[in-house]
Write a structure and sequence with these properties.
The protein has about 300 residues and is α/β, with parallel strands linked by helices. The protein has 14 helices and 10 strands.
Length: about 300
C-alpha cells in the first residue's frame, strides 16, 4: 500500500492521468482505423430561417462527424475531435467530411435541388499547408456552385494575428466559399480583425441561448430589482448586443442550441434571423435529411 503510494508520488503522472493517457492512445488508434472501416459518418443538422411572423423554414444544414466504434460505441465529437487534433488525424478526418459534403452537393446539383451546407474546420486542419489546394481540388472534382459551401471556424482562429490565416481565408473566399465564426462569444474576438475577414456569419454560442429568459421573466426581474443595486444584465440583452454588433459588421447571425419554444420567440422578437437547435431539428444521417429535403417534407 504505502509502497505503491510512494511510487505514485514519484510518478510524474498520477494513476488517474495515466489511465486517461492510455484511454486516449487507444482511442487514437481506434480512430485511425475508423476511416478505413467505415465507422465514420456525417450527420446533418438543419438550420432554419426565422421570419418575423410565421413558421421557421429550412435554409441550410451543418455537417457533424459521427463515430461508431464496435467496442467503444458512439463516441461524442467532444471526446474524439480533441484527440484527433492532438494527433494530427483531424487533417484526414476533416478532409473526409469535406469530401462527403462536396459529393452530396454535387449529387443534389445533378438532381436540381440544392441546400447550402456548412462544415466545421479545425485550426489544425486549416493551418495545414495543403488545406487550400486540397479544397480547390475537391471543388474541381465535384461540380456544384461553390457558394453552397460554408466553412465554420472557431473564434480563436479568427482572432490570431497571423497574415497566413487571413490569406487562406481570402483565397478560399475567392473560390466562392463563405465563412462563419462558430461558438461566437465564448472566446476572445479581435473585432478589428473580424472586420477585415470576408466573413458571412456569426454563430452565437449555445450558452448564450441557454441564458435567454422569456419576456414575462424580464418584466419580473425589473419589478423585483432592488433600487440602488446593479442588476446583472440577463441573456436577452447580451444577445441583443451581439445582434447589433453583427449588423454593424454586416454579418448574418445563427443562434445555436435552441431547445425551448420561449427561446425561439425571444430570438424572433430580437430579430435574430437564423436558428439551429434540437427544438427544430436534431442532427440526422446525411442521406435521411437530404431525402426528406428532396421529398419536400422539409421547407
Ligand atoms: P459545433 O460545431 O458548435 O456543433 C454544434 C453542436 O451542438 C453539435 O454537437 C450539435 O449536435 C449540438 N447541438 C445542436 N443543437 C443543439 C441543442 O439544441 N442543444 C444541445 N445541447 N446541443 C445541440 P456535436 O455533433 O456533438 O459536435 C460537437 C462539436 O464537435 C461541434 O460543435 C464541433 O466543434 C465539433 N465537430 C463536429 N463535427 C466536426 C467535424 O467534422 N470537424 C471538426 N473539426 N469538428 C467537428
Ligand atoms: Mg459548428
Ligand atoms: Mg457551435
Ligand atoms: Mg462547438
Amino acid at each position: 500500500e504505502s509502497k505503491s503510494a510512494g511510487r505514485a508520488r514519484l510518478c510524474f503522472f498520477c494513476p488517474e492521468m495515466r489511465h486517461q493517457i492510455i484511454a486516449a492512445t487507444r482511442m487514437e488508434q481506434a480512430l485511425r482505423h475508423a476511416l478505413s472501416r467505415q465507422q465514420l459518418s456525417v450527420h446533418l443538422q438543419p438550420q432554419f430561417m426565422l421570419p418575423a411572423t410565421g413558421a421557421p423554414y429550412l435554409v441550410a444544414a451543418e455537417a457533424l462527424l459521427r463515430w461508431n466504434d464496435p467496442t467503444l460505441g458512439n463516441v461524442s465529437p467532444a471526446t474524439f475531435i480533441p484527440i484527433a487534433e492532438e494527433s494530427g488525424l483531424i487533417v484526414e478526418l476533416g478532409h473526409w467530411v469535406l469530401e462527403q459534403v462536396c459529393m452530396a452537393l454535387a449529387d443534389m446539383t445533378v438532381k436540381g435541388r440544392t441546400l447550402p451546407m456548412a462544415v466545421n474546420v479545425s485550426q489544425v486542419q486549416f493551418r495545414n499547408a495543403d488545406f487550400v489546394p486540397r479544397v480547390a481540388s475537391l471543388l474541381k472534382r465535384h461540380i456544384f456552385s461553390s457558394d453552397l459551401l460554408r466553412i465554420e471556424l472557431t473564434e480563436s482562429l479568427a482572432s490570431e494575428d497571423e497574415d497566413d490565416v487571413l490569406d487562406k481565408i481570402d483565397q478560399l473566399a475567392a473560390l466562392g466559399l463563405s465563412f462563419s465564426i462558430d461558438d461566437f462569444g465564448i472566446g476572445y474576438s479581435n473585432l478589428a480583425r473580424l472586420r477585415r475577414m470576408p466573413l458571412s456569419e456569426l454563430k452565437i454560442d449555445r450558452s448564450f441561448i441557454n441564458d435567454l429568459v422569456s419576456e414575462s421573466d424580464v418584466v419580473d426581474a425589473r419589478v423585483h430589482s432592488v433600487p440602488g443595486k446593479v442588476v446583472v444584465s440577463h441573456g436577452n440583452e447580451i444577445v441583443r448586443a451581439m445582434l447589433v454588433m453583427a449588423q454593424a459588421l454586416s454579418l448574418e447571425v445563427v443562434a445555436e442550441g435552441v431547445e425551448e419554444e420561449y427561446q425561439l420567440e425571444v430570438l424572433r422578437q430580437l430579430g435574430c434571423q437564423r436558428v439551429q437547435g434540437f427544438l427544430l431539428g436534431r442532427p440526422q444521417p446525411m442521406e435521411k435529411l437530404i431525402q426528406a429535403f428532396e421529398a419536400r417534407e422539409l421547407a
